[in-house]
Please model this.
Amino acid sequence: MLESFEVKPKEEIIGTRDLFLETLTKIGCQYEIVPDDGNICFGYQGENFVASATNQGLYVHVWDTYWGQVELYDVDEFSRLRKAINHSNLNCATMTVYTINEEGNTVDVHCKSTFPFMSQMPNLDIYLRSELGDFFNAHRLVGNEMAKLREQQENDQVN
Model:
């Protein structure tokens, strides 16, 4: 059943950034504003996120960086990671990417999501929890696919 909602008068409309900060507080997240760039750092369910939004825009950009990694020169594991990221990106709204850290000899895994966020939307606290929950879906999809690919490789070597 579709839920109806009231259109708020113009004077009640709050900017996207302010609304996002208000909603973070409502769902129990403490946040800090980075003085240099204005990014919003916050924790949710044990994971650290960085977000950006403006009061003039309608979208929030959220990153979950460095949540996974494999060794750069472990060719098999790197190959599995690439396949697992492709699998996640096909099955999850949150985008997963990797970066190469040659100095540390690692391949690091990150996620990003961009979504609309405005006062005219109903149940913003539930909506934000859902959007943040999708990051954990991406983590799970990558992890499960990596495990599946490892098992397939082990079975192939036995047979």
Residues 27 and 49 are 14 Å apart (CA to CA). The first helix runs from residue 16 to 26. The beta strands are 31-33, 40-44, 47-52, 59-71, 95-101, 106-116.
